[in-house]
Amino acid sequence: MKIRIIGGGPAGMYFAILMKKADATHEIAIFERNGPDDTFGWGVVFSGKTLANLRGADEPSHAEITRDFEAWDNVDVVHRGEKISIHGNSFSGIARIRLLKILQRRCEELEIEINFRTEVADIESLRRDCDLLVGADGVNSTVRQEFADHFKPSLSTRPNKYIWFGTNQLFHGLTLTFRQTPAGVFAAHSYKFDKTTSTFIVECDPLTWSNAGFAAMSDEDARSYLADVFAPDLEGESLLSNNSKWINFALVKNSNWHFENVVLLGDALHTAHFSIGSGTKLAMEDAITLKDCFDQTSKIADALKRFEEARRPVIEDYQAAAYESMLWFENARQYVHLSPIELAYSLMKRSGRVDNGELTKRDAEFMARYESAKSA
Ligand SMILES: Cc1cc2nc3c(=O)[nH]c(=O)nc-3n(C[C@H](O)[C@H](O)[C@H](O)COP(=O)(O)OP(=O)(O)OC[C@H]3O[C@@H](n4cnc5c(N)ncnc54)[C@H](O)[C@@H]3O)c2cc1C
Fold first, then answer.
1. Whose CA is nearest to atom 35 of ligand 1?
2. What is the pLDDT of residues 218-277, one digit of tens each?
3. Mutational test site, ligand 1, from 280, 281, 286, 319, max ligand atoms within 8 Å of CB
């Protein structure tokens, strides 16, 4: 099969790897607008279950990904300067650039062609010249745009502002930190992803953002403002910028996932709010499911239909959980009157997917502490 993939992120490269492994005669080429060493973002998160899926799909890349990643089992909630830890949550982090490098090397090993610094100008011609065209070109997908009449995408821009930083302060676990200021409430989502660096995402509602005066502030001034807000948590470390800018989360859905010989994968197809840390995981698991569908049939139309049937319910479930989580953060100012233990409890239950029984199973001590605070 002649496969053309636009986008050399986790979704595109992982799909190429799995297809080439399944059948070395597939002729696969990836087109990526960035260079091999260009990077954006900091660390990405995987759950224990995702890692098991990656092991099943491709042992060599799984071995590399898990070789020196950072694993943790705690969510820490910091409110009014008090830290509450909730254990029993299995996650791990790896630098995005490291993940991309592992996948690039694996593509090389399998002799998959990657055309870096290549933007496809004529997508329709590429489509006509191949058996399968995969749009794995991220949240602002041009493939989705080009064939919008077929995919019928819905894009909604959410009100909260957020900005990705790194820091050398190490957060051992997924740490959710709340700081109340005269401007409003700031929340930070942070976790370490290698021996020296953590991701540090700051989120706030539009009122807080405008009260703080960010509209008239340079990116550099915003960075030092936020370093001051989170000074007690950063303990002297600075916030590191990688062209970090305020953005609004875009919620992407598509009515149709494929048409003729074109299919979308990863962020091009769907997004889920970063507070459940699943963008990269979902992108790679999409690739696994699509490849599994090609194991079942070599007919492209059938495989794409099966892909949508199998994957849509999973994605819709994730998006529903992520939506609840996103709403919680959009309304964070309504929760900060809670005590630290109550806020931590509310956060753990925000997606509507974790009940008291599950929380007790994960961390009985935390639940006992919460129950006793509630009845006090
Ligand atoms: C600024 C930013 C920072 C992020 N940082 C993190 C982070 O630190 N941690 C985390 O967990 N998640 C992060 N994410 C989210 C995460 O990257 C995605 O959820 C995940 O990577 C989805 O994988 P993907 O392969 O579908 O898309 P992407 O990883 O976005 O890959 C799409 C690729 O397509 C390429 N591309 C796009 N259009 C074209 C075109 N027309 N021609 C050729 N190539 C094209 C892009 O350069 C990109 O390499 C970040 C996202 C953004 C936008």
1. 7
2. 999 999 999 999 999 999 999 999 889 999 999 999 999 999 999 999 999 999 998 987
3. 280
